[in-house]
Amino acid sequence: MLVLLPAAHTAFAGAGSVEYRVAWDNADSRYHVYMRPTTAPSPDLSMTGQVTLRVPHATGTSKFTVTDIKPKAGTTWSLSSEVFGPSEDKAIDYLSFSFMPIDVRAFAFKAGVEQEAFSFKNTGPCMGSVALMNNNTDPFNQPPDAPNNSAGTNPGNQFANAGWGATDDNDYSGNYGTAAECGGTTIINTAPVANKDTATTSADKAVTIDVLKNDSDADGDMLVIASFTQGSKGSVKQSGNSLIYTPTADATGTDTFTYTIADPDGAKSTGTISVTLTTVTPPPEELVAQTDSFNVQATTGGITLDVLANDTIPAGQSVTLTVVDAPKHGTATVVNNKIVFIPTAGYSGTDTLTYRITDAAGKQTEAGITLTIKAATPPTDTCAAPPANPVDNKAYYRINWSATDQRYHVYMYASSVPSPNNLTSAQVTLKAPIGKDAAAFTPTDVQSAFTGLSWSNNSSVHAPTEDTAASYLSFTPAISNAKAMPWQAGTEIEVFSFANKGACLGSVSLLENATDAFNQPAAAPNNSVGTNPGNSLVNLGWGSMDTDNYAGNYGCPATCSTDTTSKDSDADGLTDAEEATLGTNPNSNDTDGDSILDKEEIGSTLSKALDTDGDGVINALDKDDDNDGIPTSAEKGDANNNSKPDYLEKPTTPTVKSVAVPTLTQWAQLLLSFLLGAVALRKYGRLGK
């Protein structure tokens, strides 16, 4: 006996495969499995094999039962797996036989010569054809290379001979011949019987019906629900071996539907299900106030809250609405059984209140209301909207006028960040209304938004022949840091701002390279003064020195205004323009939060804002105005009753008078005088005796 145990992936020269066939022999009433090689393997070393048969599914005594396996001499074949009626094909049982060699050369294959591998008997009745599995098409073996079936098995036909390749290759190539047709008596299947079912439920409740519980099958076969219909007053769905009937709302009376059962051989029977629908008597309604929540916008007008909309009020009853606990940040009054809420001016945040409803019989119920008060939304500034459909690696320009600081501000927008960020040149050209003499538009106090770039007005052309009603003003930067522009993808950045020394004559816009007569032709202008006024920008992170990364303008023309005295956003007595000059917050009447209004801390002279401690920080921005270590908020009193609050008084050090200390000479003179005095006193005393 020769047994070889090859290592994984051991391979010999050669190519070939083996085919399988199954046949029935009436002479011995046995099934025989044959093999036929396409070539003779060299060396002929058969290692492993598997044969899987498809037999008719049956249960009980009708089941296909393998016995008395007779293998070819020098081999062993065993029934290694049985899977009965899997979900992939419930009409089939899968039987797998495994081969292990006693002698790896036992088959002694010859090209094209068939030989028997093994045979066996079936002790069950003849139920029909027996066939070999087709690896590629059988649903129980999908996908063929790594099956993922319902039983978790690997049923595919397989054979490995080292003479045909690696030992872990599958040298099985297919089947030949026809299915094996057994002889003998065929068992006649008896169809199942589906019996009538009944159920009772109400219109608001689904009911589960175990329809198979009272059904029968003479053969003892396992039954399944093959199909079912829908009711006219409700819907039906399957859950395992049961059907769930859900009535429609308010349905009453009787509803019927059918279902069909089947046994493993496909025999079917249909039964009827009758459902009685009882009337649902709703419980009496109770008066119930439900919790409410509202999101409201801060507004000077009243906001109507329909708090009764979600409350339970019995039909036909009238109720009275009252406010029990008032809100803390506004007022709440009842108008036509609705609550009108007016928030405190300037407040945003949350607030709560409680209301009560009372019916005619005096029954009461209460509920709370939570209000989320959102700050009033300012009108959308469409002029600050980003450019539509911006192109990557390009910059867009915008100009804006600020009434607060009386300056023009220039912005740039990019949808992508240059890499590396290396600005080499830029030009922004504005078009302003023409003015004469002192009224002429004259940029002054140009301020760059960040260090590393110093913008200046390098060219001003007034009333050229191309447009005698306009002044063209060009600005360029002196670049000391090519990375200074803090580009942010999808966000505009301010680049520089300036004031106009001339008069406010109208709107200022950015030059349109493609259409402005003063910039034609756009690629190489040939205007009346020989300038190149077009907007431009070159950043090596977006291209080369020859690439103009300016794409266009967005926003609206900048319209100046001279009325800055009337706007006082925080109502503290200082205009927004004045607060912009002082550095205080125009939207807060107490910028430093010390409980002293900005106007009071500034003093009577705007140009000489109070700075009590002289530290360079005006009182309106200083939390300790007199720098005595005590916060201003704690010094609003007048400790010394001099009609001046303590926070406006500098701390003083009490005056300490100096005391003269005698010198050594003076001490000697004092001592001598003391001694002479003592002697004289003694002498005087003696003379008196």
Automatic annotation (TrEMBL):
Keywords in alphabetical order: Calcium, Secreted, Signal
Respond yes or no to whether keyword RNA-binding is given for this record.
Answer: no
The highest taxon in the source lineage is Bacteria
Report biased composition (Polar residues) as residue ranges: 147-160
Q: Where is this region: Disordered?
A: 136-163, 620-651
Q: Which residues form the IPTL-CTERM protein sorting domain?
A: 660-682
Q: Where in the cell is it found?
A: Secreted
**Predominant place of localization:** secreted
Q: Name one GO molecular function term.
A: calcium ion binding
InterPro entries from the xrefs?
IPTL_CTERM (IPR026442), TSP3_bac (IPR059100), TSP_type-3_rpt (IPR028974)
Q: Which residues form a coiled coil?
A: none
Range of residues in the leader sequence: none
Q: What is this protein called?
A: IPTL-CTERM protein sorting domain-containing protein
Q: Which organism is it from?
A: Thiothrix lacustris
